[in-house]
Amino acid sequence: MIKLQYLEEKDFRKIVEWNGNKTSDYLLQWAGPVYTYPLTEDQIREYFYNKVKKENSDIFVYKIILADTNETIGTVELCIEDKVNMVGKIGRFLIGEENVRGRGIGKLVLEELLRIGFTKFKLEKIILKVFDFNSGAIKCYEGVGFVKENLIKNARKVENGYWNLYEMSISKYNWKNRNK
């Protein structure tokens, strides 16, 4: 139903379009503090070429594609955060095409990203951070085996105060047991 392919410069415009009529809080929610509002192709390009495409980068940014239509519907990132302990981190996860949300695509993306992380990159643990009010995302993450580890209060300053976030993780051991 979905496939993940490496993001290319031609995909930057689509990401900007998905954020066109949104707020700074929306951008912070899916992208973290890497970008500033309003999002531009130049910001994505700068991050892409200075962080992702640099030599020996441990950041892998994927576009999410519907297999039957070949339409790009989102983006997600996997970063190898700790090479000693083989810990990866999922971030900047966005299903940008709103008409496909709520169909289980997020779960499929995570299942594929976990497979890549644990088999291709030989990771032992994958972590992520999610704001505590994002119940749909939390349910999706728990649905593929992530567990809440910590609640960080006042983690991000936003227009109307602060947001709390959960750190969640899944180990290779638990992932393998779920996928027997």
TrEMBL record:
Establish whether keyword Thylakoid is in the entry: no
Keywords linked to the UniProt accession: Transferase
Q: Which InterPro entries match?
A: Acyl_CoA_acyltransferase, GNAT_dom
Q: What is this protein called?
A: Acetyltransferase
* PROSITE patterns assigned: GNAT
What SUPFAM superfamilies is this protein classified in? Acyl-CoA N-acyltransferases (Nat)
Protein transport among keywords: no
The N-acetyltransferase domain, residue ranges = 2-173
- Domain of life according to the entry: Bacteria
Q: Name one GO molecular function term.
A: acyltransferase activity, transferring groups other than amino-acyl groups
